[in-house]
Amino acid sequence: MPDTTMDEEDSAPTIETTVTASDQSAERPSTSSTGRTVIEARDLSVYYGQERALDEVSIPILDKQVTAMIGPSGCGKSTFLRSINRMNDLIDAAHIDGELYFEGENVYDDDIDPVALRRRIGMVFQHPNPFPKSIYDNVAYGLRVQDRTDNMDQRVETALKRAALWDEVKDQLDKSALDLSGGQQQRLCIARAIAVDPDVVLMDEPASALDPIATSKIEDLIEELAEEFTVVIVTHNMQQAARISDKTAVFLTGGELVEYGDTDQIFENPEHQRVEDYITGKFG
Amino acid sequence: MSTLLVAGGLLAAGIDPSFWVVLFSAFAVPVGYVVGSTVVTESDGRAGVLGPFVLVGGALAGAALERQLAIEGLESYLTPTLLLNSWDGLTASNAGVYPQIVGSVVVVGFMAVLAFPVGIGAAIYLEEYAPNSGWGGRLATLLEVNISNLAGVPSVVYGLLGLALFRNALGFGTGIVVSAAGTLGLLILPIVVVSAQEAVRSVPDSLRQASYGMGASRWQTLRNVVLPESVPGVLTGTILALARAIGETAPLVIIAVATTTYTPPSGLFSSATALPLQIFAASANAKPEFRHGVVPAAAVVLLVLMLLMNTTAIVVRNRYEREY
Question: Which of A20, A112, A122, A253 could pair covalently with A198 via S-S, beta carbons 3.0-4.6 A apart?
Fold first, then answer.
């Protein structure tokens, strides 16, 4: 096992990466609401059995921007993320009130097929979860289940390049994905999600299980991905949200969306006292 | 293969003792060393295959030792005659269990064809498709509890069920392959379901989520992710089930399978007997050489047969486990 695990530190020195990340966030213009709304929640509530996990949330998510969801544990931010591509359908006890529009259509309408929806909205999970298959088969998985097997080698290579993993794995595409390091596995999961050219990429704390170097690589990657995809990211790490996102939504206890706006404004001058308390670390 | 080795080892009963010593030191010792060191250094998943080697090696070593020490022992009945001849209830040295071996293999093989798809299918349905909540969920829970209970029901009861179902209700003939396979199939079905359920359940949910998140349907997720991951566990369950079925005697007695036949079954609707039944019958034979000679010899044959089936299943399982 150790001899097949590749050394991530070799490919990029730590300091450089961190500097690049912070530079980019400093230069990033605080984009105002010029973008097109791709996803819009209207009074969206989610219940698990009797328990309310999300309380009448209304929020727009704009095209080709990074929208961060922050808040303490159990505040409903992951629930919101999973209700966008109807992953909550997999939980029997979950039920939903309100509407969630994706490209103008309510995804909870009866005639919407969740399988087709998830083909347009990719997802990356908290813990890297590559399939116990080869690296190639992992990236090709979505293409295969969607019957898009033409130019597969090319698509796999493109996806791995976009996920900044190609140089590290190009000589061992037939090796088990489980032999990669945690950070590489997570980038593989990102490659897997973007290989099928989704419109939106949902990320549920994609870096929380990774070390700082791997985290900064993922962060760089997210900023690049936002040029082509709409990215919604849930994170516990407020600095991360400040670094990489254009818009930030702050959820507080009880599944309540307290504030939504430009990231710079949320972090510098929040409207609500509770948000300021949370961001400055007084609670949460 | 192992059966041939056993037969070969036993053939050598009449050969000069010194030949054995030479053969043992020139052949068995190095082979034993290679096998032993392979198991020690690359033990992952291969230790289970060792069983037949130990058995064969033990038999050979025992035979060699007996000759070398010139022990005036009992006459061995574990001879090629036993494997190749038909049954002879009068002369022990002429008695063979060839029809019974074929009968056991055919019955258990057909049973596997009947029971495994149904059992594995039921397990997949209960784990992946059955509802978790509401009335459907309660029904599924009730079914699961019942299946677990059925796994513990004594085999005689399954014999009665088989008698009622296959002979009385469906009107099949008495003691034919289909009835025997069906009865044993019912007997092992709960074992297959429970163990396959366990295997399917042990596939991490994160993999299912990853697959659904990629826009895979339930069936695609099942076929591409869940099934390949659970194959080793499912096969472990089927190994247990096979081992249980091939040794069952009581239900076959109840459905009136003949204890002694002189020809192997010619088809699914011809009568057949199984090895344990023949052992059971021979243990009541008036002649002591049957009770003390043929019965234990046939029991060894039954054990080897079971080990061979298990070895096949273990090899298949290990092949799957080592893929990634």
Answer: A122
User: Where is A52: in which H helix or E strand?
Assistant: strand A51-62
* Collapsed DSSP state (helix, strand, coil) of residue B17: helix
Residues B207, A142: C-beta atoms closer than 8 Å: no
Is A42 inside any structural domain?
A: no
Q: What is the ipTM of this complex?
A: 0.81
Residue A28 pLDDT > 50, yes or no? no
Contacts of B199 (CB under 8 A, 6+ apart): B123, B230, B231, B232, B233, B234, B236, B237
Q: Which amino acid is at B264?
A: P
Chain B residue with CA closest to A191: the answer is: B214
Q: Do A129 and B224 touch (CB under 8 A)?
A: no
Q: Tell me the residues of chain A between 185 and 204 that have a Cβ less than 8 Å away from chain B.
A: 189, 192-193, 196
Residue A261 in 3-state DSSP?
A: strand
For residue B207, the chain A residues in CB contact (below 8 A) are 129, 131-132
Using the beta-carbon criterion (under 8 Å), do B214 and A192 form an inter-chain contact?
yes
Q: Do A192 and B207 count as a contact with CB atoms less than 8 A apart?
A: no
Residue A14's CB is within 10 A of a number of other CB atoms, namely 11
Asked if the structure places residue A143 within a domain, the reply is: yes
**B324 contacts in chain A (CB < 8 Å):** 132-134, 176-178
CB contact under 8 A, B215 and A145: yes
Whether A145 and B211 lie within 8 Å, measured CB to CB: yes
Least confident of B186-190, B243-247, B294-298, B309-313: B309-313
Report pLDDT for A237.
87
Contact B237, B192 (CB under 8 A): yes
Contact A141 B206 (CB under 8 A): no
Task: Report the distance separating Cα B229 and Cα B146, nearest Å.
Answer: 26
* Number of domain units in chain A: 1
- Cα–Cα distance between B66 and B153 in angstroms, integer? 44
Q: Is the C-alpha dihedral spanning A164, A169, A170, A176 positive or negative?
A: negative
Binding-face residues of A in 123-142 toward B, CB within 8 A = 123, 125, 127, 129-134, 141-142
Residue B131: its chain A contacts at CB < 8 A? 92
pTM over 0.80: no
B212 vs A contacts (CB less than 8 Å): 87, 90, 118
- The ranges assigned to domains in chain B are 2-73, 99-321
The answer to whether the CB of A283 falls within 8 A of the CB of A103 is no
Written as six digits, the tokens of B221 are 């997720």
CATH number at residue A142: 3.40.50.300
In a domain, A234, yes or no: yes
Which residue's entry shows tokens 């966008």? A84
A92 to chain B, minimum CA–CA distance in Å?
7
Task: Pick the more confident residue, B49 or B322.
Answer: B49
Q: In a 3-state reduction of DSSP, which class is residue A94? A: strand
**Residues B200-237: b if buried by 16+ CB within 10 A, e if exposed:** beebeeebbbbbbbbbbbeebbbebbbbbbbbbbbbbb
pLDDT of residue A1: 40
> Over the stretch B28-74, which tens digit does the pLDDT of each residue have?
667 777 776 766 666 565 666 667 777 777 877 777 776 666 666 65
**CATH class entry, domain B99-321:** mainly alpha
| A58 located within any domain | no
